Amino acid sequence: MDRNPLFRKKPIALIMKDAAGGEKETHMRRNLSVADLTAFGIAAIVGAGIFSTIGTAASQGGPAVSLLFVFTALACGFSAMAYAEFASSIPISGSAYTYAYASFGELVAWIIGWDLIMEYAVGNIAVAISWSGYFTGLVRGLGIHIPEFLSVDYLSAMRGHAEAVKALAGGQTLDQLSFHLQETYLAWMHAPQIGDFRLIADIPALGIVLFISYMVYRGIREAKITSNLLVLLKLLILMVVIGVGSFYVKPDNWSPFAPNGVGGVLKGIAGVFFAYIGFDAISTTAEECKNPRRDLPRSMIYALVITTVLYVTLSLVITGMVSYKNLAVSDPLAYVFHKNHLEALSGIIALGAVIAMGSVMLVFQVGQPRIWMSMSRDGLLPPRFSKLHKRFRTPGFATIVAATIVAVPALFMNLTEVTDLTSIGTLFAFVLVSGGILIMNPRGKDKGQGGFRIPYFNSRWFLLPVWALVLVVMFVSEHIAFSFASLAEVEWPVWIFIVVAVVLTIAAIVRQWSIIPVIGLLINLFLMSELGVTNWLRFVIWLVIGLVLYFSYGTKKSRLRNMDIQETVKES
């Protein structure tokens, strides 16, 4: 047992006992099969990214972006295997928070739990706002007009109106302005007023959050049925898009395949990675799985494989329909069909975006309350967060709070500029989960618990060849080749990665660690370093706020600090 209470680890036996509880009313309903879990993963992965990120990445890397999706899926696969091993060993709700408690201790567990709150909440706020935009566009195409002041957030309307006024004063007409400026200008001008305050709110964003949260509140069965239906519709729509689009592919558009070389392809790596970050939400449903030790690992891998095939196929189709040079647009799917005079499919694409984003919100709204539930069981959050609804067997209070912190900002605020916090938060979780495996099971031994174990490949024999391959790519690529004279320009997040990479490589070779979690940790830390100083500073500020809450509440209420762990585990 760790002497320092801040790093006291929670034994797996105690985690299992706390989750089992002593009374029937503490048990969650086990309704999820491997198919349901795979659908949850697809729902979380195939979201806004496939309707936006894919275009920017293709414009930089050309048709070779299809290979980037394969590389990113492999990179996520290393993290997925770490998640899968933890899920087999600790089949309990809580995701990376629970895994960190068992491997790193209480302080790190709190940090990752607080990090996941940011990841899920900020991510869903941005998705809700994006969903509203696609939804209003869809119903507008059906002849239904939602007043602008009821479909735009207040900050966007205020800023857009000010920008539009300047443009109009400069001699432009309203029709000459972009659609966004027209929309925000009209929202500000037509909004009802109370004194000087204008009543402007994004009602569709509020509506989708409340609807999704209601499904989650009612129970995992209802959430499962909704998720499966949305995933089925989403896949059918994307199959139609791929099927029709394939008839308009011009092979000449695939040449050159990698016009900007390896560097051009790698420029889109952070954005492409964003498309995959949702698979970790599968692990939050562990206590509602019929066979978590078997089904959680399988579903994570299945979801990654299916979505990778989908992304690769779609990227080849859109780069074949239109030259990669023209794909740096916010709605690449709609754009390529418009360029090929297939406007009739624009409504189908808009419907696909609405369904895709709705399914992402569903999975994240399922995941966040279950993480809070695990933190509450440990005393780090108030007890109400772990209380289950008597009828629905869901963490009802936590679900309501999660809905509130997403719905209110989505109603009034424009938070799209902080969406990168979602990426850095998820990458941080992946880093800790991979590092946790190196602490719990560094040499891939089967500890007799059954379930999934990461295949063991000795870093002593494989890690140096991997680094040699990386260095070759670095010197071949103009994007990341550098001279010693340019080292002074390297930002400090990159230096963090370099130092950690050197130390970790030496330790892995000397101690013969399993190479897969080592590579997973290094890849995710590298992607974090690529997100820039601003995002790191925002991330650090969020963590500081969390630490203040932990030392003012969690350290006093922590159950682990005031119990005899050995006796408690024996009783189980």
List keywords for this structure.
two-stranded antiparallel sheet, Amino acid/polyamine transporter I, 572 residues, mainly alpha, 1% strand
Task: Characterize the structure shown.
It is found in: Membrane. Residues 515-558 form the Cationic amino acid transporter C-terminal domain. The chain crosses the membrane at residues 37-58, 64-84, 197-217, 229-249, 261-279, 300-324, 344-367, 394-415, 421-440, 461-486, 492-510, 515-533, 539-555. With 572 residues, this protein is mainly α. The protein folds into two domains: 5-137 and 207-442, Up-down Bundle (Amino acid/polyamine transporter I), CATH 1.20.1740.10; 154-200, no CATH class. Helix content is 66%, strand content 1%. It contains 23 helices and two strands. It has a two-stranded antiparallel ribbon. The chain is globular and about 70 Å long. The model is unreliable at 479-485 (pLDDT under 50).
Strand content: under 5%
| End-to-end gap | 18 Å
Q: Structural class of the secondary elements?
A: mainly alpha
CATH topology of the largest domain: Amino acid/polyamine transporter I
The whole-angstrom Rg is 24 Å
Please identify, by name, the CATH architecture of the largest domain. Answer: Up-down Bundle
Discrete helix count: 23
The largest sheet, given as strand count, sense and whether it forms a barrel, is: 2 strands, antiparallel
Looking at CATH, the homologous superfamily of the largest domain is: Amino acid/polyamine transporter I
Number of domains: 2
Shape: globular
